[in-house]
Amino acid sequence: MKRFLEQDKTVLDTQTGLIWTKNASLSDFPMTWNEALTFIEELNHSELYGFDDWKLPNRRELFSLMSREAINPSLPSGHPFVNVFTGYYWTSTSCARLPNQAWYIHLGGARVFKGMKYGSYMVWPARIADHLDSQVFRTGQRNCYNENGDIVDCHNTGQDGELQSGLQSNHPRFIEDTYTVNDNATNLTWLKNSNYYNGMLDWKSAFDLIEKMNRDYKYGHNDWRLPSIVELESLTDMSQHSPALPVDHLFVNVQKFYWSSTTSMYDINYAWVLYTKDGAVGVGYKLLSEFYLWPVRGKLSKRFSPIQSSKFL
Fold first, then answer.
1. How many CB atoms lie within 10 A of CB 223?
2. Is it true that domain 4-163 has CATH number 2.60.40?
3. Contact in structure between 157 and 55 (CB atoms under 8 Å)
4. Domain residue spans in the chain?
5. Backbone phi, then psi, for 170, in 5-degree steps?
6. Is pLDDT above 70 for 193?
7. Strands 180-183 and 126-128
8. CA-to-CA distance for 157 and 134, rounded, in angstroms?
9. Does the predicted TM-score (pTM) go above 0.90?
10. Half-sphere exposure of 281 (CA within 13 A, CB side)
């Protein structure tokens, strides 16, 4: 099935069940976080395109639209969107550790960072298709916050904590084995010890170590690999920090930052990395031994974005 289906002034993403405005710059100009939420409220009041359930997408919803194989914009090949600003777009998700900041995503290169809510960034409305269920997992956020970072009543805020949009993972999400943890949400199996190498290493060395694990049939398997950035991000929980992993995770020796197998298209000398303190998604220079290795095996659930192949070794 074709991923994107145009519907006049909207676009249905058949992979996620989300509908986006075809015009990615409907607001014309950047807004503060509160202004962005108010803008969405006004769109619903006016029933934009006949609907009153538009929302500021949460972090995982906007992340699901990103492609790590394209830049300026970082959207899948053949997308039908227009007026895509290759800068930052707000999400409805606050940072758990610093709730006076909210998450935004760079449409030029797909970086996921947080910033003060009084900053000005773009707004891209989304809604869940009437005849489909969202195929994007919840971020985990359950509280709502004002611009100062104080917890507020979620009612009519339009924030991630109010809507809690998306799929809930199976309970229990994580099943523990002697050396591994299976994630029932993604069907992936991770090493329980998330610092297998016991130190930082460069990108190529991470692949070399994975190759050795497979030669040695480590823990009874020979299909270990370096996770993609989509797979690493799937572990994050936006209600938690330090690390930003689900409260019931069973991992030990969790480190602050991890290599992925995904190369940055901005500069192929860099690869995508996950920062577990808050859940930021950035890049690291491949030649430097500044990130950790967290081996994974299994096939990612189709509910997550397609995996980029490990190019440019």
1. 12
2. no
3. no
4. 4-163, 174-297
5. -60, 150
6. yes
7. unpaired
8. 21
9. yes
10. 27
